[in-house]
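Q: How do we represent a protein-ligand complex in a form that can be generated token by token?
A: Start from the inputs.
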Amino acid sequence: MGRAPMAWRLSVTLSVSAARGHPSAEGTASPGGRRRHRIAFGAMPTIVTLPGDGIGPEIMAPALELLRTISEEFSFEEHVFGGAAIDVHGTALTDETLAACKQADAVLLAAVGGPRWDTTDPGAPRPEQGLLGLRKGMGLFANLRPVRPVPALYDASPLKRERIEGTDLLVVRELTGGIYFGKKTRTARSASDLCEYSVDEVDRIARVAFDAARTRRKKVASVDKANVLETSRQWREVVHIVHRAKYNDIELTDVLVDNCAMQLVARPSEFDVIVTENLFGDILSDEAAMITGSIGMLPSASLGEGGVGSNTPGLFEPVHGSAPDIAGTGTANPLAMFLSVAMMLRHGLGWESEAAAVESAVDRALDAGLRTRDLGGEATTAEATRAVIDNLDG
Ligand code: IPM
Ligand code: MG
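Then emit the structure tokens for the protein with 3-isopropylmalic acid bound:
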């Protein structure tokens, strides 16, 4: 830490290109396809942090330690969120927190939810409403979930090594539409959730997926249930219109969601970019996470129009939940959180070399044998944090 930031950055850039065979797997998938620029060093990026519930605070603290090691220039602003905010304010997301998130350069979230706030009462506040409100309120329609098992963890996956070897896929999940946000009804005898998509919503997420594929292996699997659902039939048409208009260089395949669920465990390495609607993306990304051995390894970025430097800051969070069963034990795996920090550095701030350095440090720590409990080992959160930070200098 005693070193000048510039010198440190130069050394990590060099060691990173040697350590990783490929550039960022999720590529330059900035919605809007705009050229991304870097938020300048010295500009003091403001990061709003939302530790949330359960293991959230325990993995947020290491993330801040990691960020402080990378640069002394961050300014952090913490807000209560999720169940913790329900306890204090009676709502999972206050107007003040939403406003602070909109003003930030990026938002880093750990996890929300827990049995304490579980309820089936439609009128009671729930922690998840905070997350949904944040996504919708910030206009974060594109959720990127890269799934890239680290060779050191091949044997931690419930799938056979030969099936997962070479897997490097990106789930592009539509995040602000569909059944999550449609009208909900409830009477004593029935309930309903409306699934609705506009052509524009499908059009813009399709573009994100095709742009991402262009920086990768140039394949997109568009996942729907067009044999049953009207929203899926229109989804499919729109995706093909976008493809024909601008993305002839990309190989597009339509995959039914049930078949996709099967192919993900049978032949995961065949996939490059998977683009799908909100609910299918939620389910498929948890399934895909297990290819990496643990859901404790999967990061995500939620982005709005414009990408880095635009008026819409991104939201960066691990895919896993708040794991209330292990909260307070100091054994949570912080790696998905660290990889979410890497996505924040890349997509939120345009700091590509620092992002790659974090990913590389995670790889090296795992190569050297780091295993938290979810990965079949004994390492505590603090030990995992130390291992990754020590490998930053590698
Ligand atoms: C996710 C989570 C959320 C979702 C929950 C917590 C509302 O499962 O980010 O995948 O369903 O989107
Ligand atoms: Mg989920």
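The mean pLDDT is 89. The domain at 158-292 is CATH 3.40.718.10 (Isopropylmalate Dehydrogenase).
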